[in-house]
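Q: Please design a sequence for this.
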């Protein structure tokens, strides 16, 4: 392996934390480091969390927004020891390198500098890993090259993920950098679920198949649902409904994904905030031939001007429900289309799995919109599904069952935690590599 510089040379002086002795170090001399910094790099944003894997606790979290603009904004929240006051700074942050250095400065102010010997790894969310990356992977030049080769099938996400990775590698070249792929959990799908019915040679030449996304969330939620039922993941079949501005469903049999709603890109599947989900492919030809729209215009229509916002002008489910209560017919139609698609996927994945032990709602809408959960399950009583109105109306940050005791299939609300999942996978990989090298 290539030799790496020591941690003390990886950061400029102003970003180093206060030196710790072996007596004051949380991990102690000779003990494996337990902290993981999780980075989620977008085209103009950088989300982060610092976690301690001894107890899955969060030490700090934050976001840098509008990178590259004069009005850049960094919001940092220290969380260790019961938490501290949120700090916000505004002003130009030129690029992701400057953003990460600013984040490092905030962490240093809390005694959590990126040069700390307690930092075990930096875990990166990477949206598209294709078929090659089926598990968390330590990043090297070859891995970077493959992520770059996948840019044509993830043009909105992989370039930003690469920027975050390269920035972090430059700042801490001595530290393991781990990629955790959104697509990895779905690589267990059988070919019958993953293949599109188009010419095989064409499909293979251009990597056209169903990959699926939100895999980190689906993995976490399916396991937490099993735990909620008092069983192991291998014992249960779960339909996971990740409902946020982006939305996806998955069928998970014994801990393995066997089908998912998103496909080559995150456009396929459920109705989303601004994405259409499933449409007849000929709609694109029709728009080009009859409406004279360009490929880029059609792309923008389906990804940014469709879904809930296309149907009623709003993509916030709270606002849509408010409008429905006031008698707004467009809002009601948008809600009905959203629920109709959701029901179709619940029924389809019930058929795929054969036996379902639980349906789990997660993400922003899934965790907080009781009317969505109620409407999605209504009418499915013959499948053993039901929602208890009182349990469904309770707001909580805890995983919980909202179905009545008599229901054959549990209906659950399970808050997702993609950052924790990334941290767990990154830390486990680093520990395993450390053990294999001893």
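A: Design:
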């Amino acid at each position: 392996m290539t030799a790496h510089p020591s941690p003390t040379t990886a950061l400029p002086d102003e970003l180093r934390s206060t030196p710790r002795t072996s007596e004051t170090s949380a991990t102690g001399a000779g003990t494996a480091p337990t902290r993981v910094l999780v980075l989620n790099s977008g085209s103009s944003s950088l989300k982060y969390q610092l976690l301690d894997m001894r107890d899955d606790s969060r030490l700090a979290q934050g976001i840098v927004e509008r990178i590259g603009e004069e009005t850049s904004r960094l919001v940092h929240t220290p969380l260790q020891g019961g938490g501290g006051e949120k700090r916000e700074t505004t002003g130009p942050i030129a690029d992701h390198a400057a953003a990460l250095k600013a984040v490092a400065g905030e962490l240093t102010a809390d005694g959590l500098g990126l040069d700390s010997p307690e930092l075990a790894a930096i875990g990166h969310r990477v949206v598209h890993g294709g078929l090659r990356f089926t598990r968390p992977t330590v990043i090297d030049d070859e891995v970077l090259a493959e992520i770059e080769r996948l840019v044509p099938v993830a043009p909105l996400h992989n370039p930003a993920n690469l920027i975050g990775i390269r920035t972090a590698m430059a700042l801490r070249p001595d530290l393991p950098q781990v990629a955790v792929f959104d697509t990895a959990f779905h690589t267990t799908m059988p070919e019958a679920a993953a293949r599109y019915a188009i010419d095989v040679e064409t499909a293979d030449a251009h990597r056209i198949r169903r990959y699926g996304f939100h895999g980190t969330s689906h993995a976490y939620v399916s396991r937490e649902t099993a735990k909620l039922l008092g069983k192991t993941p291998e014992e249960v079949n779960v339909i996971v409904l990740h409902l946020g501005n982006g939305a996806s469903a998955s069928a998970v049999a014994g801990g393995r994904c066997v089908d998912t709603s998103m496909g080559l890109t995150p456009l396929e599947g459920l109705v989303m905030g601004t994405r259409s989900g499933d449409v007849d492919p000929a709609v694109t030809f029709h728009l080009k031939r009859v409406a004279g729209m360009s490929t880029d215009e059609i792309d923008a229509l389906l990804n940014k001007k469709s879904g809930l916002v296309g149907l009623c002008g709003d993509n916030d489910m709270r606002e849509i429900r408010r409008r429905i209560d006031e008698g707004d017919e467009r809002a009601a139609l948008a809600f009905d289309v959203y629920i109709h698609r959701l029901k179709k996927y619940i029924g389809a994945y019930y058929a795929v799995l054969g036996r379902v032990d639980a349906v789990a709602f997660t993400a922003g809408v899934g965790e907080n919109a009781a009317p969505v959960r109620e409407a999605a399950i209504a009418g499915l009583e013959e499948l053993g599904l039901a929602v208890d109105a009182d349990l469904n109306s309770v707001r909580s940050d805890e995983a919980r069952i909202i179905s009545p005791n008599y229901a054959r299939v549990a209906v659950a609300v399970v808050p997702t935690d993609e950052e924790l999942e990334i941290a767990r996978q990154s830390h486990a990989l680093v520990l395993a590599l450390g053990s294999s090298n001893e």
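Q: Thanks. Anything notable?
A: Residues 226 and 267 are 29 Å apart (CA to CA). Confidence is low (pLDDT under 50) at residues 1-29.
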